[in-house]
Amino acid sequence: MIWEVFRQEKTGGYHTHCGNVHAPDREMAKQFAAVQHGRRKPTNSLWVVPREEVGEIDGEDVVFGGTTDKSYRWATTYNTTGADAREVAESEDEQATAEKQRGDD
After folding, report:
1. Four-residue CA torsion sign, 95, 97, 103, 105
2. Parallel/antiparallel/unpaired status of strands 2-8 and 15-22
3. Taking the alpha carbons of 89, 94, 95, 96 in that order, is the dihedral positive or negative?
4. Residues 68, 74, 80, 85: is their CA dihedral positive or negative?
5. pLDDT tens-digit profile of 50-102?
6. How many CB atoms lie within 10 A of CB 99?
7. Helix (H) or strand (E) holding 35
8. 15-22: strand order across its sheet
9. Cα–Cα distances in Å, from 94 out to 39, 61, 70, 74, 77?
10. What is d(CA 49, CA 21) in angstroms, rounded to the nearest whole number?
11. Which residues are CB-neighbours of 20 under 8 A, at least 6 positions away?
């Protein structure tokens, strides 16, 4: 039987999948997981789960991320040409000119 192993590095941290072990029962799986996956890196705890008990949800089952458009978070979605972009560039030029003039006085 195959058992999937998830490792937590620090208290309060997430458990992340780190591999699997082959064992006939839960107790042996826990022992194998401790030896194979718990000793190599700092480990706070291990979860040992039968492979057939791990469920998967993929993009065909559900749409992840909701339906809210959050493209505004990415700079690539902004239009960097046109009147608005020219206005921003002109404003920056005006500010730079004013700063130079203040420095000359």
Report:
1. negative
2. antiparallel
3. positive
4. positive
5. 999 999 888 777 777 666 777 767 666 566 667 767 787 788 888 888 888 88
6. 9
7. helix 26-37
8. 15-22, 2-8, 45-50
9. 62, 53, 32, 27, 26
10. 10
11. 2, 3, 4, 5, 51
Residues 6+ apart with CB under 8 A from 18: 5, 6, 7, 37
Residue 66, Cα to own-chain centre: how many angstroms?
Answer: 16
Single pTM value for the model: 0.58
Beta bridge partners of 44: none
Give the Cα separation of 15 and 8 in Å (integer): 4
For 15-58, write each residue's pLDDT tens digit.
999 999 999 999 999 999 999 999 888 999 999 999 999 998 88
Tokens of 104: 């000359």
Give the Cα separation of 94 and 74 in Å (integer). 27
How far apart are the C-alpha atoms of 79 and 60, rounded to whole Å?
32
Residue type, position 65, single letter: G
